[in-house]
Amino acid sequence: MSADGDGGADVPGGGETRGDGGAGGRVDGQGTPRARCVLAPNPSLMTLDGTNTWLIAEPGSSSALVVDPGPDDERHLRRVSDMVAAAGQRVGKILLTHGHPDHAEGAASFAAMTGAPVLAADPAQRLGSEGLSPGDTVTAGGCEVWVVATPGHSPDSVCLLLAADEALLTGDTVLGRGTTVIAGDGSLADYLASLERLRALADEAGLRVLLPGHGPLLADPAGTLDYYLAHRRERLAEVAAALAAGDRSLPEIVARVYADVDRALWPFAEWSVRAQLDYLAATEGLPPDVSY
Ligand SMILES: [Zn+2]
Description:
This protein is 32% helix and 16% strand. The protein has 7 helices and 10 strands. It has helices at 74-86, 101-104, 107-114, 188-204, 221-244, 250-257, 266-283; strands at 35-39, 52-56, 63-67, 90-95, 118-119, 137-140, 143-149, 158-162, 167-171, 209-212. The strands form 2 sheets. Strands 1-2-3-4-5 form a 5-stranded mixed sheet. A hairpin with a 4-residue loop joins strand 8 (158-162) and strand 9.
């Protein structure tokens, strides 16, 4: 899961015509010299055009990394495997940005298809002995990615720095359109800290592009991260204002803060408001009669 039911213009789809990705769209086949997107056929409100599976390889090398195989869809997995083979490569390792099913469900099938191990921050998602810990470098055929822990969207979320291309694979921590939901197992405090970490990394690593888990590439990493941080703070202020106005339940707060958002997205907005209330409870405190 990924896209936020979060308000204003930044609902999933971000004001663009959804479905413009169609069966392939703009992101499929896009990337950087060392990263290429293969779009999975699982579009939805929450996954935008579908899940972006990323192939990472040094041009001309014999080995590739595959990030987020996506849903357990044999045609998609076969297509990914065929593209790696067509480049004269084999899949060296499978990496997961996090364990949500739209990213990870196909990992076991893809591992069986390719013989490659699955590396993930969450031990329960791994196949093989290797994990993904902060600061780890994972290599395939001379191509390196560096693991950045970015909990928040989920506790096990990581981003992967492809320094050679000044690119960052963001999973669901940053999306190509709209903003990200804090999932039921996520944490807004962790998420804000992760966004701050990535904002610093954008300058330190001279990032030129974000490669998200859903939606198109983002060519302004620093600006995107500034927007995400500002958006989160704005939403927190709106939730605090709703409490000050007397709202005491999730539906009341959602109805006020997300009044201009399609009601189909309100269930997702409730996740975000719950995460915001958790955050306010731990920081400023909540009125005693709030129920959520
Ligand atoms: Zn997710």
